Amino acid sequence: MTAYDDLMAFQRQTEALAQVAGRLGWDQETMMPRGAAEQRSEELAAMEGVLHARRTDPRIADWLAASDPADPVGRAQVRLIRRSYDRAVKVPARLAEEIARVTSVAQGIWAGARAADDVAAFLPVLTEVIGLRREEAACLARGGDPYDALIDDYEPGMTAVDIGALFDRMRPRLVALRAAVLASPHQPQPLEGHFGTEAQLRLARDLATAFGYNWDNGRLDLAVHPFSSGSGADVRITTRVVETDPFNCLYSTIHEVGHACYELGIDPDYALTPLGSGVSMGVHESQSRIYENQLGRGRAFTGWLHGQMRDRFGDFGIASPDAFHGTVNRVRPGYIRTEADEVQYNLHIMMRFDLERALMRGDLAPRDLEAAWNDRFLADFGVAVDRPSHGMLQDVHWSVGLFGYFPTYALGNIYAGCLYQALRAAVPDLDAQLAQGDTSGATGWLRENLQRHGGLYAPREVVTRACGFAPTEGPLLDYLEAKFGEIYRL
Amino acid sequence: MTAYDDLMAFQRQTEALAQVAGRLGWDQETMMPRGAAEQRSEELAAMEGVLHARRTDPRIADWLAASDPADPVGRAQVRLIRRSYDRAVKVPARLAEEIARVTSVAQGIWAGARAADDVAAFLPVLTEVIGLRREEAACLARGGDPYDALIDDYEPGMTAVDIGALFDRMRPRLVALRAAVLASPHQPQPLEGHFGTEAQLRLARDLATAFGYNWDNGRLDLAVHPFSSGSGADVRITTRVVETDPFNCLYSTIHEVGHACYELGIDPDYALTPLGSGVSMGVHESQSRIYENQLGRGRAFTGWLHGQMRDRFGDFGIASPDAFHGTVNRVRPGYIRTEADEVQYNLHIMMRFDLERALMRGDLAPRDLEAAWNDRFLADFGVAVDRPSHGMLQDVHWSVGLFGYFPTYALGNIYAGCLYQALRAAVPDLDAQLAQGDTSGATGWLRENLQRHGGLYAPREVVTRACGFAPTEGPLLDYLEAKFGEIYRL
After folding, report:
1. Measured between alpha carbons, how far is residue B326 from residues B181, B194, B482 in Å?
2. How far apart (Å, rounded) are the C-alpha atoms in residues B245 and A77?
3. Domain identity same for B73 and B186
4. For B32-46, how does the pLDDT look when each residue is reduced to its tens digit (9 = 90+)?
5. Which of A269, A446, B167, B356 is 20 to 30 A (C-alpha) from A247?
């Protein structure tokens, strides 16, 4: 046994334990009886204690010092383990525990505050969370931009300056497109009617199958919020059902299938190693978004879906596939990020990016956040926020300390735009396939060119390799302008 | 913080991690996609590694040496932790790992051998498992009877000599009762017909509710083998459905509800401590058996159940409650322990006890086990075993190294017999309650007098306290002779 072998054996057990902790999270949202919540939090805390001890185990430093694998896979493993170890030991155990404790309390307080539209009830704990994460960021940044240190946790190598520049280039075109779309006289028809839960779930399962989800290594359950969970050979997804809005269930299922297929598409040789899961949140989101939007909401696939829905739900008032395509892609004013369409979604992200960047730098005080949010929303969306649950209280992220995470959603959209451009060039009859409900050309290309690499390459590198060019905002914006230009006859 | 506080804080995390490992087992049998089996075994092995390291952590010895709590609860905690630690450190890590490795392989080999009725395919790995468990038992026994050391793991304080004496007293009366019942001209009618899965499961849920199962802290799912899983605030049960035999689903549900209610009935102050789970396998089985048999298969409750079944399944060919009571308690010759009725069940256990005792002492070679099994079965049941899957290959236990476990099933029956005698004296209108489907008098008495104590008292002690007398075989045998004498008009 070399030091590298010892390191990888130790790491493999840590990865297995991390999968266990993840499975507990899945159970909590899907299966756990409600009276078990308090005990579960102790179970999760005990698992986190075990994982933290392993991730900061001093033997890792010794093994790393003595490891020098010659092959690219081994070098990538060492690089990721070193990165994770360096981050883990920079944060004092006391601070890590305090963050875990406060954020677990804060989430409950946030949920109550959102339900009551009561910013004041949330502000004290939000202030505490912000303080703790700034302290952590300072430990990690060691003199650099603390917000960058947080971003790096979700999107390694990405910086606030780079993201800011990207967003600055995107914003004017998105604001203009949004305005033109909303002003167009050619508004698609809304979907109306009642769509039974069982039929929605059957169709959702069929869509998951159509997008290549492997049921031998996964399952679909109901949860309050759709999510994908797990790596390796066990990647489960959840969905939810709103009987007046089947697109909610169907497209959140496709979205989660994108996440799950990324995990399941990784080279099985990497399972239970640092290479064995998605390389970043942005690249992860690129897969969920391209499955959901560029493929699932494209004209070719919605034509097939229209037939499926008519077969299952009968006549639901939208007779032509073209009209149905408009309905699927309907753009309406709205306050809520998670309900936003492709045109407006990134605008929601950009304002969060600027606000949390200012919070982390200390340029914005938590008590001023609500006013800053509402001002910015009015500027970008032309509408005044009518209540805090439609404003700064709408997202869970900040309550659990997720600063630096929001921009990865927009990065995912940008990467998806690039990948879609490359995919169309690589698979000339893509639309003909999708029009038959056959996604295998698209998903096979994504698996081969991106998904299978797992953590082998850095995020931008793996997208660049797949596309043949470095990711930029252009392809996404071109795609959005063309697609919505056609639907809204701009 | 005193040493005792440190010890209990450490132990609490260990108990929480043990709950997590148990939940993985539940998931594996109920929810896990089949392609995840190999990864799951690594996850479980990693959890076992963590638990073993904690259970043998040398700090436990220091804390124990410095702990001297004055109250009975603290003293019981220290006693159980010391017992567990002493056992854990007596077994070399190499041996513990080897047992885990071999038994996990052996279970698969056993399943294949049983399906193929091929003893020879099982014998090599069984021999290996027996050798390893004898080695472990020798480590634990330190000069005492090695089989006792294994029994002590499941039924602390019980010995093979005591069990042997109990069984010797029981056997003649059970053999005689069995012969008389099978020879009686008054044989109950068999249940025939088709009983839909959904209706069976609805009734199973209602039975679980009737027996006081708290759905806020549990759930019911399907699995190949019914089981109960978890302690504290999250105790889940499973059942199975055979559409031609609804009693399979209904009574296995009541049985598992008995196990689950024991766990859920323990004083919540003991949760995630050594006192917070059932004190022994025998006492656990006493609860599942008294729920299933003395209560669930008693004349009063079957009268109520008869009405429930007629309401749900219509006329199923058994019109009178008395006839239905006979059908529920029908005694038929059979090879299989898990299908055995109350009269024959303990005879199955007694032969396994004698055989595994001889195996552990080295008085019986594994290669001679099949002949010894078949000889003994013929002697006790008057029937020749027709194939190994009806004989020594029928149970999973030995393949996974569970030697010393079988007798706890019979001890459970004995304890249940004693508890039922005491319960009848304490709740004079018990039958009137049960005839209404109301088990609250019975389950309330069991919770108050036995379940709530968890691990506070030793197994025999807690039964003695509940009953007011030391447990013996008499009440069980008297009950069986009276009940089956009436049904079969002996």
Report:
1. 12, 19, 14
2. 55
3. no
4. 999 999 999 899 999
5. A446
Mean pLDDT within B218-247: 97
Domain range for B355: 147-490
Residue with tokens 């949004």: A178
Same domain flag for A211 and A161: yes
Residues B239 and B130 in one domain: no
Claim to verify: residue B375 and residue B473 sit in the same structural domain: yes
Dist. CA A239–CA A206, nearest whole Å: 13
Asked whether residue A70 falls in the same domain as residue A191, the answer is no
- Cβ-contact B14, B6 below 8 angstroms: no
As a whole number of angstroms, the distance between CA B148 and CA B141 comes to 8
**Does residue A256 carry a catalytic annotation?**
yes
Cβ partners under 8 Å of residue B463, min gap 6? B283, B286, B415, B418, B419, B450, B471
Task: Work out the mean pLDDT of chain A and round it to a whole number.
Answer: 96
From B256, B292, B342, B370, active-site residue: B256
Chain segment A31-42, per-residue pLDDT in tens:
999 999 999 989
Asked if B134 and B163 sit in the same domain, the reply is no
Q: Is residue B184 within 8 Å of residue B485, measured between CB atoms?
A: no
Report residue B259 as tokens.
């196990």
Last residue of a domain, one of A147, A162, A184: A147
Q: Which residues in chain B are contacts of A47 at CB distance < 8 A?
A: 17, 20
> Other CB atoms closer than 10 Å to residue B465's CB: what's the count?
13
**DSSP assignment of B103-133:** HHHHHHHHHHHHHHT-HHHHHHHHHHHHHHH
Nearest chain A residue (CA) to B218 = A33
- Do residues A319 and A448 share a domain? yes
Hunting for tokens 């699995």 — which residue is that? B223
- Residue A19 is nearest to which of B43, B214, B233, comparing CB atoms? B43
Pairing of strands B220-222, B236-239: parallel
Picking from B13, B43, B215, the nearest residue to A33 by CB comes out as B215
A187-218 burial, b for 16+ CB within 10 Å, e for fewer?
ebeebeeebeeeebbebbeebbebbbbbeebb
CB atoms within 10 A of CB B400: 17
Q: Which of A15, A136, A155, A256 is catalytic?
A: A256
Query: What letter would DSSP give residue B392?
Result: T
* CATH number assigned to the domain comprising residue A367: 1.10.1370.30
Tokens of B48: 């076992």
Residue B107 is encoded by which pair of tokens?
């279970």
> Which of A147, A179, A208 is the last residue before a domain boundary?
A147
ipTM above 0.85, yes or no: yes
| Same domain membership, residue B395 and residue B375 | yes
Average pLDDT, chain B: 96
The Cα B234–Cα A36 span in angstroms is 5
Residue A390 in tokens: 């439609």
CA B331 to chain centre: 21
CA–CA gap between residue A355 and residue A376 (Å, rounded): 9
Total domain count, chain A: 2
**Whether the Cβ atoms of residue B312 and residue B203 lie closer than 8 Å to each other:** yes
